[in-house]
Amino acid sequence: MLHSNATQNPRVLTIADSFSDGSAGVQADLKTFAALSTSAMSVITALAIRKTSNENTIHTIPIDFISSQFHTLVNDIGVDALKIGMFHSSSLINCIVSFITKTKIPIVVFDPAIIITQLPVDSLDILRNELLPFVTLITATLEETSILLGRNIVSLSDMKCAAQDLHRLGPKYVLIKGDHIIPSSSKQIQDEKDINDVVEDVLFDGVNFTVFKSQRLPMKTEYSIRCVLSATIIALLAHGIDITRTIQDAITYTHSIGQNSSNFDCTHDVLKHTLSMCLDQTSNESLKPTTNSELAVDDKQHQAVSKDHNDIVHIQSYGYIQVPRMISQQRSFIQLLKNECTQEWFDYTHHRFVEDMGNGTLPHTSFKHYLIQDYIFLTNFARCNALAAYKSSTMKEILHAANIVCHIGRESELHISYCAEWGIDPESVSSIREARPNLAYTRFTLDCGMSGDLLDLYVALSACLLGYGEIGTRLFEDPKTKQDSPYWKWISNYAAEHYQVACREGADLIERLVIDYGVWYSTVRIKKLIDIFKTATELEIGFWAMGLNVEW
């Protein structure tokens, strides 16, 4: 059970070892979480003593006690995002798989420290087959990727192929950390020193690759740095930041910590976690390089980023602004809404109707009934956006709503043609009565607009907009989805870039209205919007059930 968290920082949990010197594991994660404005929690799986000889003494925690830690946190506090670290046994892996399948935590990042633990082959099989399908992002080093896939990786091209193969095992996103990879041939290498100084990390989102290039940090800090990087990633994702910007900013932040800790006269990799990047408090702009006149600390180096036309992000040394926090207090409102109805959102986006479309087993009668009712829904969706134009107070907002109405009009014409492909004639589409679940949903959205303001209306409509985008993308990227099924066209349409752009624009509009209306300062208003979003999500579940069971 995930408890309400409307006015607090996102709740982030790490499951890992405890290193008594604070250099890695739970301690490193918690310090990073705290620095990035999250509510930090931990489940300790083992107690580790790290010696100056780089040998570790480890005392494992009984599985029952690990389970008790987890369930207490989930039931009493709630969890928005989960980071998983070291595994010592197959029983621990099975235990954690049970955790995430039962609780359906929306964001799960897996940092597979399998080299240190030297997992046996059977444990690796469990990782691949049982855990990875439930992971949002895996952050594997080059060597770990080689072990998971059973082959050597020696080039950037190999990294991209490996990322695709890991993605097929289930994770939504894959990040392969370059370690000692020789840079791609497109970079002019002057000497061996240049090769050793450059790191290339590869992100694969199921469709596109992004390569992040940065300077290598001192080897002494490597293990601790990996903990900070993955902890930073989960914290940023919990704040609702998109995946590419998350990786970019996490590398930037991690490198600033590594550079400012490298002068420690210490054998252990104990890092400073008190540095924060300067992110805009009211917009979605990424970290930007500062000019010399803006430097708060001019004797340190930070990382700024640029992206070229080949989707390679270059991270270069600049001065940085040192500020108290990295994350704006105005975190993603969309992510908050999803976090407040985690179970409902999962039931909606993973409904049997949806899953049967993916595997091609959905009865044709169910899909035809859905298509006709969806046309009626589109008509009312257009009415809602026409109402949004009336509710708008600026010409820009009015034109935005009007453009959506025109887009829905064009989409409805395509919908008629699509129905014809399924043997449904236009007269049937326009003459069939509105089913009760459809009636309940559309009148709810219209009522939100009539009785509330523009934000109430857009939040009521957002469950449909964002949910379909998420469903389309997930099914499109899932290797188990049947591309030769009659539902592939529907899936491709909602995974297409034009629809994903509409999703991003709709989400950005809500985030802006939340700030403009001062929502973050009103717990009453936040609760109202959560209730609207949750009800809309429940009505979406009912809409799928209506189609599946041919309900009237």
UniProtKB/TrEMBL annotation:
GO MF: hydroxymethylpyrimidine kinase activity; phosphomethylpyrimidine kinase activity
InterPro entries hit by this protein: Haem_Oase-like_multi-hlx, HMP/HMP-P_kinase_dom, PM/HMP-P_kinase-1, Ribokinase-like, Thiaminase-2/PQQC
Domain (Pyridoxamine kinase/Phosphomethylpyrimidine kinase): residue spans on this chain: 20-263
GO CC term, one of those recorded: cytosol
UniProt record, GO biological process: thiamine biosynthetic process
Thiaminase-2/PQQC domain sequence ranges: 343-548
Protein name: Phosphomethylpyrimidine kinase
